[in-house]
Specification:
By secondary structure, the chain is mainly α. The protein is built from twelve helices and no strands. It starts with a helix and ends with a helix. InterPro entries: TPR-like_helical_dom_sf, TPR_rpt.
Length: 234
């Protein structure tokens, strides 16, 4: 179960544009294409956008391609996302671009464990710098929660920490937001996964239902609820 989650749903993370200002239209289109697993549309969006939007489209493309078994496409999309985000890191780094970069590194490690030696530290540094720039950013806490969930305990991972960090992210989403506002549904979903690993199945189900309340078309939480129903029936 956890292996499937690590490979197929490492982060359904949304994001922002970063050319001059966030592009809500681009983000909405990318999310819609991702929810319907439309690889062709995601490829088109990754080609027609720039900066953060380009990285985000490639990141979503990588996740969808990986779920559909297209590993080569997933790998190339992550490389493209990394390139775009590292360029932003050099020219105009902010907490949002650094947080997504940390997650891009994390997914690359998940797809190829041999990259952990080189990208693990880069991922940790990116999220640490993001937190320094925006210590109360909910997405920073969310990325840290995902890392805590997916990192083996021998390397500092912890389901309890994942749960705590996801709760922190959820609390921060209550703050007024008028710029970059993604991630609340993901935070509930990852907290539910941590609760499930800790043996709190009912708490996990409640969080996944809450994720759908936040985002009605959020397919990952729906999938987890269906999967849980199937397991319960058996």
């Amino acid at each position: 179960m956890k292996t499937f989650l690590l490979v197929s749903s490492l982060a359904l993370i949304s994001s922002h544009a970063f050319a001059a200002s966030p592009s809500n239209a681009n983000i909405t289109n990318i999310d819609a294409a991702s929810n319907s697993m439309n690889l062709a549309q995601l490829q088109q969006l990754s080609a027609s956008t720039q900066d953060y939007d380009k990285a985000y489209a490639n990141y979503r493309l990588a996740i969808s391609a990986n779920v559909m078994g297209q590993k080569a496409l997933a790998s190339s999309a992550l490389t493209n996302a990394q390139t775009a985000l590292e360029a932003l890191e050099t020219s105009q780094a902010d907490a949002e671009s650094l947080a997504l970069l940390s997650s891009v590194y994390g997914m690359q490690i998940a797809l190829d464990n041999s990259k952990g030696a080189t990208l693990g530290m880069k991922s940790a540094n990116a999220i640490a710098n993001a937190e320094q720039l925006a210590p109360h950013n909910p997405r920073v806490a969310l990325v840290k929660a995902i890392a805590a969930y997916n990192t083996p305990a021998m390397f500092g991972g912890s389901m309890q920490n994942a749960k705590t960090l996801a709760t922190t992210a959820i609390e921060r989403f209550a703050q007024p937001c008028d710029d970059i506002c993604w991630g609340e549904a993901e935070a509930y979903t990852w907290r539910g996964l941590a609760k499930q690993e800790l043996g709190d199945t009912q708490g996990a189900i409640e969080d996944w239902h809450q994720a759908i309340k936040v985002q009605a078309d959020y397919g990952w939480a729906k999938f987890l609820l269906q999967q849980n129903q199937q397991l319960s029936a058996n």
